Amino acid sequence: MKKFIFSLIFLMALGLMGAEVNNFSLSIGAGIRNVKGVEDETGTNLYTEVYGKNNMAYSIDLGYQVLKSLQVFLHTDYFSVKGKLTFTQEDTKLKIIPIELGLRYFMGKKIIFPYIGAGTGYYMYKEENVIGTVDEKKFGFFGEGGVKFQFTELLFIDLKVKYIILKVDGTEGQVDLGGLALIGGIGISF
Questions:
Q1: Staple 178 to which of 65, 118, 126, 166, CB 3.0 to 4.6 Å?
Q2: Neighbour-count burial of 152, counting CB atoms closer than 10 A to its CB (0-12 exposed, 13-18 middle, 19+ buried)
Q3: Higher pLDDT, 160 or 15
């Protein structure tokens, strides 16, 4: 982890030596996130039974262009979902807030810029219900791919698919809080 952070700082310093206008980008977005969860002995996904599918997440992303095609970025989102426990039907709530740091490699020219990216995240998650409260923090990883549409020098739209790897210890073994996210956003370059 220390080598990864040192490498990102080095790339940012390298980018500052050739700094131009619009090295930074800021975007806000929203999308759906599916959590893998855990399956019981019958093959039923317990997460889906309690919280459902295609839950909303809201995101914010700050990027810095260190080289022409390489961006360092810091990302966070807010994911909060309510559900009902399977047997008692009492309320339960899950919240996941990550702080993710990664690299994106951009391809393309002019208006359309496809990209791939990857990084690591510090995930804060909390689940509250009558059974108890789990309030933990854990490191995980992610990979993403998307397309950035740069309409003007300042304005862009970003569409991405992201896969998160986040396994945590639950009351009945390991639970997979990772999964697939589809996010769309609008941003500015400055």
A1: 166
A2: exposed
A3: 160
Which of 8, 33, 22, 12 has the alpha carbon at shortest distance from 155? 22
Classified as helix, coil or strand, 3 is helix
What are the domain boundaries of the chain? 2-189
**Best CATH choice for the domain 2-189 from the list 3.90.1640.10, 2.40.160.20, 3.40.1190.20, 3.40.50.720:** 2.40.160.20
Tens-digit pLDDT profile for residues 118-142: 999 999 999 999 988 889 999 999 9
CA 3 centroid distance within chain: 22
What pLDDT score was predicted for residue 172? Answer: 62
